[in-house]
Design brief:
Blueprint (H helix, E strand, L loop, with lengths): L2 H7 L2 H15 L13 H8 L4 H11 L9 H11 L6 H22 L9 H6 L8 H19 L10 H26 L1
Helix pairs in contact: 1-8, 2-3, 2-6, 2-8, 2-9, 3-4, 5-6, 6-8, 8-9
């Protein structure tokens, strides 16, 4: 299935967790001594919908600091502001889709390989990563894997089941992007 198909078929837990994972991977490396991950509160709300409004407010407040408007953190803040207060309905699906696009665009921006095809983000979302750079193709694969893991969870399983695995996959992706960004920064210096 393509990423577009997986987002279209995902349940509310899958949409919420997939979106939070995408946003988490877009955040820059925290400064030394910085507080905890600002999106951490949202992970619990992925398992428990009644927590979503309060945890969303916590995440918004944690990221409510001035940043360069073009920086990924500013775009994450904008998407958090646009997140639906109810973790349900078509608004959630549209928001999860926007989070997916942002993560792919951020990865494309850090790829050192110029895409060999026009509109590589749309091609990756449609299931064709050919011609995309390694970071973009890797992110498309990571999003696909996360949504497939969430879709494969038994409906009778506890709501939090599998979210730890999703967070592990997301954390690894975050490390990869940060390493690529650091390497790119050293090359520019």
């Amino acid at each position: 299935m393509s990423l577009l198909d997986l987002i279209a078929a995902a349940d509310e837990r899958g949409l919420a967790a997939g979106a939070v994972a995408c946003l988490e991977r877009c955040l820059p490396q925290p400064a030394p001594g910085a507080g905890p991950d600002p999106l951490r509160p949202l992970w619990a709300a992925c398992a428990e919908p009644r927590l979503w409004p309060a945890r969303l407010a916590e995440a918004r407040a944690a990221l409510d600091t001035p940043a360069d408007p073009g920086a990924p953190a500013a775009r994450v803040r904008d998407l958090l502001a646009a997140a639906p207060d109810d973790r349900a309905g078509p608004e959630l699906r549209a928001w999860a889709d926007a989070c997916s696009v942002l993560a792919l665009e951020v990865h494309l921006g850090h790829d050192t390989t110029a895409p060999a095809t026009p509109d590589p983000v749309a091609r990756c979302r449609a299931g064709d990563p050919s011609g995309a750079g390694p970071l973009l193709a890797g992110e498309a694969g990571r999003q696909t894997a996360i949504l497939e893991m969430l879709a494969a969870m038994d409906e009778a399983a506890p709501a939090a089941a599998g979210l730890r695995q999703v967070r592990d996959v997301s954390t690894e992706g975050r490390r990869i992007l940060r390493a690529a960004a650091a390497r790119r920064g050293r090359v520019r210096s």
